[in-house]
């Protein structure tokens, strides 16, 4: 009896794992296509280094609703890609009053463009190590008369939001360059963690939307799938019993399959997993015959009837909630059930 529940648990965990991986894959494709990670980084850098644009609007949306409202970022915050090597000297910052310019972002990009490759004419850099950012700040300070204090004066004149952060770090370091560099590195690392939290909040809502779409497109009824797994286990048990029972049991199996040749029924049932039969209810299903090419089938009418049947809605809700846990959760649960161990 225990094997029945083990089969049921493994079947559900594997199905939820596969669907969660599909959701994660769609999200990753969406993120890469729109370069969301890179846009998040450079929108933050523009707000922190050069401030808001000429209309006084922040580059990085502050709320989740704002993030979805501006996707895929109508104003691309990423600098244009340059295949030229970084200049040996960063040069002085321009003494200007127009906050719409991006002098600091441009010079920061020049210091890190060696790790860049183009993506539709824009930078693809999605991560700047805190140590590299601190070195870039020190290089900018080296290009100003007076060093760090000259850089701070220029940032104040430019009304850069970075001035307040660096000035506090400079005073805390008691004007020691090494301590100042370490302070900039620690501060930027904390800012990247805060930015990662905002990005994770955004991704959580994206995954929730994709999970709902996958559940409805495949009309994956988790409760019905569990019943199918139990029926499959019972059917395999009956076939095993028939193998050692004699012709009378074989006649019962013939009546149960309702075919002239019950062996074809048994073979087809045992060779087709329950998950494959459940996915046949998707909007578009695929059939892979023993011979020949795969065939695609449009199930629009059947899919709509199944989707609008209230008896399936609790199963859809179960599947949707399961997908919200994510692929790592179901992979860890599968390893615990099966006893798989990681390398480390």
Briefly note the structural class of the backbone: mainly alpha
Distance from N terminus to C terminus (CA atoms, Å) equals 35 Å
Beta content: under 5%
Helix content: 55-70%
Can you summarize the main beta sheet?
2 strands, antiparallel
Query: Unreliable runs, pLDDT <50, ≥5 residues?
Result: 96-100
Instruction: Kindly report the spatial arrangement of strands forming the biggest sheet.
Output: 1-2
Please, how many helices?
A: 15
Query: Rounded to an integer, what's the Rg over CA atoms?
Result: 30 Å
Shape: elongated
Average pLDDT over all residues: 78
**Element order: H for helix, E for strand:** HHHHEEHHHHHHHHEEHHH
How many structural domains are formed by the residues?
Answer: 2
Count of distinct strands? 4
How does this structure look, described?
There is one protein chain. The chain is mainly α and 344 residues long. The protein has 2 domains: 138 residues, no CATH class; 179 residues, no CATH class. It has 15 helices and 4 strands. The strands form 2 sheets. The protein has a two-stranded antiparallel ribbon with strand order 1-2. A two-stranded antiparallel ribbon has the order 3-4. Helix 1 packs antiparallel against helix 15, helix 5 crosses helix 6 and helix 9 runs antiparallel to helix 10. The longest helix is centred in the middle third of the chain and has 42 residues.
